[in-house]
Amino acid sequence: MAYASSPASLSLLPSSSSSYSRRHAVPGAAVTLPGRSPVRRLEFIGTVGGFLLNSHVASKIRGVTRMMRPGLRIVVSMAKRSVGDLTVADLKGKKVFVRADFNVPLDEDQNITDDTRIRAAVPTIKHLIVNGAKVILSSHLGRPKGFTPKYSLAPIVPRLTELLGVQVQKADDCIGPEVEKLVAALPDGGVLLLENVRFYKEEEKNDPEFAKKLASLADLYVNDAFGTAHRAHASTEGVTKFLKPSVAGFLLQKELDYLVGAVASPKRPFAAIVGGSKVSSKIGVIESLLEKVDILLLGGGMIFTFYKAQGLSIGSSLVEEDKLDLATSLLEKAKSKGVSLLLPTDVVIADKFAADANSNVVSSSAIPEGWMGLDIGPDSIKTFNDALVTTRTVIWNGPMGVFEFDKFAVGTEAIAKKLAELSAKGVTTIIGGGDSVAAVEKVGVAEKMSHISTGGGASLELLEGKELPGVVALDEAVPVAA
Ligand code: AMP
């Protein structure tokens, strides 16, 4: 690759920090921002470590207050009672309905090609088993239309049995007399997997009668399906009306600890890296993060809308013409909030959208006609890395380029490697779902991150400051002394 011209400086440096008082407030102290109601800063503790270590962190964060655009819901309290709060006295001999997420990829022969979601469900199930509960597992798989053998949960049984060390039984349905018989025969510590709950259209409609039938199988409820927590379905929301207590599983709790807890009360400096194809799909996330971060790094296809808004030529790069004003207003907002927003100063351009395209590296201000930007360039990688080493918390959502093509995966892979390196040095690194997760997995550094979100849509909604129906429906955590 040739370097065609020197990089243009498009970085917006931090302003004289009108938000100084917010950024330097003492954890736990109430601070008032001009024109805003008081905000209690809450210290986030226990950033790295295992599931169990983190499982109570969110429950210590009371009433996380979010500042958002006018018209959006303002207060989110995601502090939920955790399955870890339930002891043998609460669980022994009790039938527990666990909504898990076993929506794993299968090949044509019904072999599981990635068991991440099954492994992620194990801590909650084991906690219930060792405390003598009768575990009734529910999940969806794929998007079936009625009873479809292809979408049966049967392929999950051997792997789950192996991971739990307990033989998992499987029902052929998720409600009805046959299922009731199997539940009645479950010993303490036994595990029964119900059939795909989406075989009933009532599931996604959150039909109260269907929810009641599901709930009638059990005494209490645990939601550990973060990936579907942004949907109000019968097994994620409806059942909570009939089962008490309704609590969060360890996986769900961990997602909240990081995506709500660490984001609300980060160790600073706090940086967000946002990439992906379009600015329109990330507006909510960018706006929400601009309220919280010190540094915002932008990459991916969305940068060209920002460039164009600044009057630069972008060749045939991806652009959203109707979002130029929005891009300008986001840049202005970053400046007024004292957020250091960095746009890539150079890009890798291609003569066509293809893995074997001819490529070149040019300054962001020198993209020739007929060429499109498909990755961030080497100068930008260096600038981004230099910014990242100053941070103590980083959240990443969206690739820096078309990482599906090896030739244009360099920027995304460099960020993944840098975050792995920082993680080892104690920086809290959060990968917020979707393609960024695929990227860190591709580079082989997934295990090194503080947290990898298991839910694409759900994590985006949380980062936008939205409430997730499957979380809202759970019991509030018992208040802790301030
Ligand atoms: P998203 O789902 O919005 O996070 O977008 C992810 C997609 O953005 C990936 O499939 C990438 O290939 C794509 N993407 C990243 N950078 C670019 C770019 N410069 N031009 C076009 N698509 C891109």
Automatic annotation (TrEMBL):
Assembly and oligomerization: Monomer.
EC id: 2.7.2.3
Biased composition (Low complexity): 1-20
InterPro entries cross-referenced by the UniProt entry: Phosphoglycerate_kinase (IPR001576), Phosphoglycerate_kinase_CS (IPR015911), Phosphoglycerate_kinase_N (IPR015824), Phosphoglycerate_kinase_sf (IPR036043)
Designated name of the protein: Phosphoglycerate kinase
One Pfam family, short name: PGK
Organism: Vanilla planifolia
Pathway recorded for this protein: Carbohydrate biosynthesis; Calvin cycle
Region annotated Disordered, chain positions: 1-21
SUPFAM superfamilies attached to this UniProt entry: Phosphoglycerate kinase
Record HAMAP family: Phosphoglyc_kinase
Family that this chain belongs to: Belongs to the phosphoglycerate kinase family.
Species lineage: Eukaryota, Viridiplantae, Streptophyta, Embryophyta, Tracheophyta
Obligatory cofactor(s): Mg(2+)
